[in-house]
Amino acid sequence: MKYCSTCGHPVEQRIPEGDNRHRYVCVSCETIHYQNPRIIAGTVPVWEGKILLCKRAIEPRYGYWTLPAGFMENAETTIEAAARETREEALAEVDIHGLFSIIDVPHINQVHMFYRATLIEGRFGAGEESLESRLFAVEDIPWDEISFPTVRKTLELFLEDMKTENYQVHLKDIRRPMSARGKA
Ligand SMILES: [Zn+2]
């Protein structure tokens, strides 16, 4: 952040009085611009034992397969966000059954939440952000072409719970890989 979104003057980094972290503070109007983690909400859409994945038509990870998910918008609930992203990316209406995974990704300031869902009447398509959507049998999941670590982790957990049909809520975190730690 370089400029104040309130008045347009430059911001500087400093610790405001009573705080203990550096914040962006406007040099002119003194507005403190807090930055906090963002929530990504999505679904694991299932139909007749298969899982719906979308092939991304946008960067990052163009051409890789993902669960439908995206940034939560203001004024919606996480379930509404998950359903909306599923509608936008997979042109699919879903019944949402419950929370499945919450994955903290602290090094990029994100929290990913996935809900278990069933496609209504098995209908889906490819939204503007998807090249195509496809139902994958468990043994056909394209593990080498999965878009993001949170999607991979959620799929791994889901396949595990599928075996017993005993679905838990999984709280996980994904931290920067060891190999990348020294570089940042
Ligand atoms: Zn300002």
UniProtKB/TrEMBL annotation:
GO terms for molecular function: catalytic activity. Coiled coil: none annotated. Residues 36-159 form the Nudix hydrolase domain. Pfam families: NUDIX (PF00293), Zn_ribbon_Nudix (PF14803). SUPFAM superfamilies: Nudix (SSF55811). This is ADP-ribose pyrophosphatase YjhB (NUDIX family). It comes from Marinobacter pelagius. The lineage of its organism: Bacteria, Pseudomonadati, Pseudomonadota, Gammaproteobacteria, Pseudomonadales.
